């Protein structure tokens, strides 16, 4: 059976709720985890199709193919990729920033923004995503996903939104995660990929058309207020059209410039690039 990864955050609920409620049929064993775990499991060959951090794809593009027409993105503010601050950003020069161990893309995005937008050079210390512990030891802390949404709601600390800054700097949307198909799955089950692509298109449509059901499900998972969830699900984009594809390739170019990638990378999208 298809081993399908699922990010353990609200951001993919509008896609996966159709599968878990059986509104869109898909024979799969679901494996949920934070992005860093899915990245690792995919590269170890333990997942056939899964969302992974876009930078994790760029680090090993030979591991597989990108699923067409789907990503985890935002065009400007993203609301769940936040740098919480004990001091103004300008005072971070030469300091160490705590970064969540759950992320890969956003850690690189932070480095790009620090070097290219703020012209500040910092060190980065990976830590478990616990805001008060992070800020007790370091002047700033990066959180993503539900950790960031909950921390913003509960801790009331100053923060900057990395999606907003990326848009200020480049004018582009930011693609945080891509769904990828493992090369072993392509070799053995390529005839099944078409139906998985179709299932994801259906589930995405289902999520758009059943927004209140998705919000009800989100309320069961977390304590966030309904208006915040409504806004969040409007903010997160799942596109991977030509403009998003160009945007993620620009992100890879910057990543190479700050030495977070050995060289720039182009996407290899299933059904589009051969
Ligand atoms: C917008 C988000 O997208 C994501 C951010 C990721 C990363 O930083 O590596 C990976 C997967 C997505 O969950 C988020 O988690 O807040």
Automatic annotation (TrEMBL):
Plastid recorded as keyword: no
Protein name (Swiss-Prot/TrEMBL): Chorismate dehydratase
Catalytic activity from the UniProt record: chorismate = 3-[(1-carboxyvinyl)-oxy]benzoate + H2O
E.C. no: 4.2.1.151
Gene Ontology molecular functions: hydro-lyase activity
Pathway as given in its UniProt record: Quinol/quinone metabolism; menaquinone biosynthesis
Protein family (similarity comment): Belongs to the MqnA/MqnD family. MqnA subfamily.
Source lineage: Bacteria, Bacillati, Bacillota, Clostridia, Eubacteriales
Recorded superkingdom: Bacteria
Stated role: Catalyzes the dehydration of chorismate into 3-[(1-carboxyvinyl)oxy]benzoate, a step in the biosynthesis of menaquinone (MK, vitamin K2).
GO BP, one annotated term: menaquinone biosynthetic process
Keyword Lyase among UniProt keywords: yes
HAMAP family on file: MqnA (MF_00995)
Protein's gene: mqnA
Alphabetically ordered keywords of this record: Lyase, Menaquinone biosynthesis
InterPro entries: Menaquinone_biosynth (IPR003773), MqnA (IPR030868)
CDD domains: PBP2_Sco4506
